[in-house]
Amino acid sequence: EFSSTRHAFSILDLSGWGALHPMPPSAIAPLARLPKLLVVGVARGRSELGPRALGHRSFLSSAHLATQKDRLNLLKQRRWYRPCAPIVAVEDLESIFEPGPDLRFGTPYMSFAPTMQPWAVQMYPAAAHIDNTARPQGVKQADDPWMHSLLLSVAQAHASTASSKGGVRTAAILINTSLNPKGKPIAADALDVLRIFCEYGG
Length: 202
Description:
It contains six helices and five strands; from the N terminus they run H-E-E-H-E-H-H-E-H-E-H.
């Protein structure tokens, strides 16, 4: 169940303005059904500090289309070959990646780059680097119920589509990169987020 004590807040609430209400759990399922070509900016809860964006200040998109990695690299003004890391519900890590010690602790901080299973490379090309590795973030329900619920909703939405195509395998996965323009730090507060939206024409 989604924890009612750990909501995803609007960008205005991040600065304490309190003009908008927290995003309710009921908003997660519609978000999961958005078009695969969409790039979503997520800014919720406390800011993030460190080398990786872990879902609180992130650009998220579908891993199904290789062109989504290209779109994110273009959006971030990065080199074409730069990979976009997958964010995955921990329950699906072992089905997406080859077994090995890298998965032992659930990879919560994108610290390892295991090899993706052949079926997953084919199904989620935007998440695979040129050598078919990826640097996943595994998300546990207990650690981040909002993101975990979103990932499971994404998998459920894709599974319903796949069932009409002969039972194609699916998993709880998106691609994730940090919410910041080129050469600038990850967005910290609502003003940073609004500047990014304006800079990217949103």
